[in-house]
Write a structure and sequence with these properties.
By secondary structure, this protein is of the alpha/beta class. It has helices at residues 41-52, 84-95, 147-166, 181-186, 202-205, 207-220, 246-259, 285-290, 309-313, 323-336, 346-350, 354-360, 371-374, 376-381, 388-392; strands at residues 14-16, 19-21, 25-27, 34-35, 38-39, 57-59, 63-65, 77-79, 101-106, 129-130, 134-136, 139-140, 143-144, 171-178, 225-234, 263-267, 297-300, 341-343.
Length: 396
């Protein structure tokens, strides 16, 4: 509980590399507001309103580097020379609100990419790329990346990061989560390579994500923020783990930090669920990470809602609001040193002024999140039929 007269940890600044966030709230990427691989004016408007609503860090909707294998459906954006002016409008809309921190998320579909009949794709004959041509164990799609593929994809990431810097973003977030490209390198089920990009340990399998981070750092300079978002769970397997034990995490975090990561964004289905309850009945995955790195740590997962993202988006279980209760738990986590920042996605999408409301203690009249309303622009354009996530998902 907040002590009268004491600084509220939710609203104290925090340093990330050379940049200071004004408070501890983060708006994560949710892949809204894209048409024909370009960000829309709607994206610029909603991100601007969320910045005006008080959030300390705004992360753009996830978008892929400009490479043929990254083009999936037009509802997913591309960060390339052909879209730079569109992204510049988004950046200017957000940054024009004041002292908010703006990052752009670099995401790549990897083996989850499918080219569907009737869905426009400029590269319909290009295969999906991944470390070993697998979506998960015994589920192939596409091909294993060659040396040329690895180099070309890395260069596309670097070029997207340079575009982010060019248009004024404070940094980028490298998406290594949820079963997409870079996460497929981290997961033992999908990385079966026998070269330097594979290996028995998580730290060994992190070679390619770390190489991409290192290349971005070399190209963008020392002060450009690089966040790394990673997860245990996948869209095709809620119970998946890249780290079977906390001891697996430390060498992985060190490798990514040494490559140039400034912040770890730890994605879980529920932000404070114990990661290894048999070892510690209280400590979440973000909290374990916090014990192993000197970099700021973002916790995220269903803050303010009763239903986690996976069961909401994929299983159609509508969530209800519980913002006031969850904010007390977030504040306690900050006070305990379990994490440094908190990501709030769906509750903040439904209520772009959520952060200001929390600051003012005004929880009355807030809107529930409903995906077919609050993510309508994305859902109307997304072709679900035939997607591998629906065919192969394991529940746990």
């Amino acid at each position: 509980m907040q002590i009268p007269g004491e600084p509220d940890p939710l609203f104290t600044p925090v340093r990330v590399n050379a940049t200071t966030a004004r408070n501890r709230f983060v708006l994560p990427a949710m892949q809204r507001g894209t048409r024909d691989y370009r960000p829309t004016t709607g994206m610029a408007d909603t991100l601007r309103r969320t910045a005006e609503g008080g959030s300390g860090v705004i992360i753009s909707e996830g978008a892929a580097p400009d490479h043929p294998a990254a083009y999936w459906q037009p509802v997913f954006g591309i960060i390339g020379r052909r879209t730079v002016d569109d992204w510049r409008r988004v950046a200017h809309a957000v940054l024009g609100t004041g002292d908010v921190v703006f990052l752009m998320q670099l995401w790549h579909p990897g083996a989850l990419r499918l080219v569907l009949d009737g869905v426009p794709n400029p590269y319909p004959d290009h295969p999906a790329l991944s470390p070993s041509g697998l979506v998960q164990e015994d589920r192939p799609n596409g091909v294993a990346m060659t040396r040329r593929d690895l180099e070309d994809t890395k260069e596309a990431y670097v070029q997207s990061a340079l575009i982010a810097r060019e248009i004024g973003a404070h940094g980028i977030e490298v998406h290594c989560a949820h079963g997409y490209l870079l996460d497929l390198f981290l997961w033992h089920e999908t990385n079966r390579r026998d070269d330097e990009y594979g290996g028995a340990t998580l730290a060994e399998r992190a070679a390619y994500p770390a190489e991409i981070v290192s290349a971005i750092r070399a190209a963008t300079g020392p002060d450009f923020v690089i966040s790394c978002r990673f997860s245990q769970w996948k869209e095709v397997d809620y119970g998946a783990r890249i780290a079977e034990h906390p001891d697996d995490l430390g060498p992985f975090l060190a490798r990514m930090r040494d490559a140039g990561v400034d912040m770890f964004h730890v994605s879980t289905r529920r932000f404070d669920t114990p990661a290894w309850p048999e070892l510690d009945s209280r400590r979440s995955l973000a909290s374990w990470v916090k014990t192993m790195t000197d970099r700021p740590v973002v916790a995220i997962g269903s803050v303010g809602l009763t239903t986690d993202l996976a069961r909401d988006i994929f299983d159609n279980e509508d969530p209800e609001l519980r913002v006031e209760e969850d904010i007390l738990r977030v504040r306690s986590g900050l006070e305990a040193g379990d994490f440094d920042l908190i990501g709030v996605g769906r509750a903040q999408i439904a209520n772009t002024d959520l952060v200001n409301r929390v600051r003012d203690g005004d929880f009355a009249g807030m809107r529930d999140f409903r995906k077919y309303r609050d993510l309508a622009e994305a859902y109307e354009s997304y072709a679900h039929e035939g997607q591998l996530v629906d065919q192969s998902r394991k529940t746990a």
